[in-house]
Structure formats: structure tokens, C-alpha cells
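Predict the structure of Cytochrome c.
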Amino acid sequence: MRKIEILTWILFLSLSSNLSALDANDKSVIRGSIVFRTYCALCHGENADGKGRLAEGKVPPPANLTKTFLNDAQKEEIIRKGGMGVNRSPFMPPWKDELSNEQIKDVISYINFISKTK
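Done. Here is the predicted structure for Cytochrome c.
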């Protein structure tokens, strides 16, 4: 079963049962998946493979987050400052004014969960 399917089941079960049974990291991953689907999936894709609906024609293309080698501090910096703020893609917007600290930490937890390099 793919990680996305597992996450979907976790999300479904968490909504239909008691969230207190999940540990803090599980909750962070679930919240992060919601943040990702709301803010990131249009470019990075539903599977975080960089093949979202808005990815076509972008040079460089959105990152394939299933194969990231960045540490959490680097991910946080890119999310907060956007691509231009860290000398990367100008298409990646800065999210520091849109996302809370918790949302940023949660989306990083989700990226780590789906990343094949972790």
C-alpha cells in the first residue's frame, strides 16, 4: 500500500475515532497533509512528486518532495522565505505570512513521512 493511501486511511480513521489514540507525530503528519493539500499540491502534486496541475512549463519544475535530501531547517527556510529567498525557483512563494509556525512544522512532518529518503 502506498504511503498516500496509508495516510488517507489514518486521516479517515482519525476523523471517525478518537484522536487521543494517536501520538503527537501522527497528529502532526495528519495536520501537515491537510496543509500540503491546501497550499502545496497544486504545484508539487497530490503525490508530492513535483507533477501538480500548475507545474507544467515551470523551469525549474517544482521539487519532487518524495526524494528530498534537505534537512528540516532547510525545508523550513524554503517554506518561510520562498524559492527566491533561498536562491531557488522564483515560482515557490514565501509562506511565512500565510502559515503559522505549527502549520509549517506539520507540513515538514508530512514531507518527512512521504519522503523516500527518510
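The CA atoms of residues 7 and 117 lie 17 Å apart.
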